[in-house]
Amino acid sequence: MTTSRLLLACFSFLLLLGCQSKTTEDSVRLNYLDYSKSDDQATGGIRMIPISTPAGNFKVWTKRVGNNPKIKVLLLHGGPGGTHEFFESFDGYFPNESIEYIYYDQLGSYYSDQPNDNRLWTNERFVEEVEQVRKALKLDNSNFYLLGQSWGGILAMEYALKYQKNLKGLIISNMMASAPAYNKYAEEVLGPKLDPTVFAQIKAFEKNKEYTNPKYMELLMNHYYTEHILRKPVNQWPESINRAFKHLNPAVYVYMQGPSEFGITGDATLKNWDVTQRLKTISVPTLAIGAQHDTMDPKHMEWIANEVQNGRYLHCPDGSHLSQYDDQKHYFPGVIQFLKDVDNGTFKKS
């Protein structure tokens, strides 16, 4: 075969591959909102999934948006005891990219069963719940991406440490790998940035365990949350965020996290959680997301990306803890690019 014929053959082969890829993309986009061949068509993608636990059987709420056989993102919300409503901004970005995503309220959350049993609120039990949800939704390592934000990031890390063989990709959004490090950052870095009088009042309330005092939450909301949770005045917070906080289950939240986002305090069960020494065992492609004004140290988030075997770091310079709302111009392009790079086999660690 002459050189010219060889070059022509190679060009034709590459052109064919490109056409096949384009055909696949067009097919996914064309069928993205077609629920006609699915058993959840009648409910608009909603499924109540049975969950078996040591304390009995319950059901958790899920809602699928779109169809994409290659990219399916299960969303793990914060809290603990929060809801999928923290993710509703995804509706403005994922459908346009034909990314399938699944909203999911964990057990104890507003749209799922809410048993009153503290034996259920452990990392280990939640990991097994996620695994049962994965199986029910028929997700596997050819398409299954897990995105956890805040407490959901803890759950995502714990899941990956046990079940990474089931994952195609992992996204850790706005969550450090150590609760003690998170507490230290709140106490030594963020707290002193507050007005000294406000900081002193907050510490006094916590010292006296006056967590239910309305003044305590008022101080946090107006001086800490608007700087480090969502960087907008409270009266400008999105309706979905207000709804999510309204639906927060305090029984689960206080038991595991404590009374507020100002560190994990009191007898909260997550107070000593730390997986920093185990992250190096995670080999699945991983995106760690940090934000400049977050309650979580962005340098620690970058460290996570370097500690796992195949990590990439996404920095949100204008964002805080809910950077999916206050820094969307960096958050969503970075997440979407990660999903597409892993899907296309072009992912490179940072």
Radius of gyration: 22 Å
How many helices in DSSP terms? 11
Count every beta strand, where a strand is a DSSP E run of 2 or more residues: 8
What percentage of amino acids are in beta strands?
5-15%
Structural class: alpha/beta
- How do the strands line up in the largest sheet? 1-2-4-3-5-6-7-8
Shape: globular
Assign the CATH architecture of the largest domain: 3-Layer(aba) Sandwich
> How would you characterize the largest beta sheet?
8 strands, mixed
Order of helices and strands: HEEEEHEHEHHHHHEHEHH
What can be said about this structure in brief?
It holds the Pfam family Abhydrolase_1. The protein is an alpha/beta fold and 350 residues long. Helices cover 41% and strands 15% of the residues.
Describe the structure.
This protein has 350 residues and is an alpha/beta fold. It has two domains: 211 residues, Alpha/Beta hydrolase fold, catalytic domain (Rossmann fold); 76 residues, no CATH class. Strands 1-2-4-3-5-6-7-8 form an eight-stranded mixed beta sheet, sandwiched between helices. 41% of the residues lie in helices and 15% in strands. Helix 2 packs across helix 3 and helix 5 packs across helix 6. It is globular, with a radius of gyration of 22 Å. It has eleven helices and eight strands.
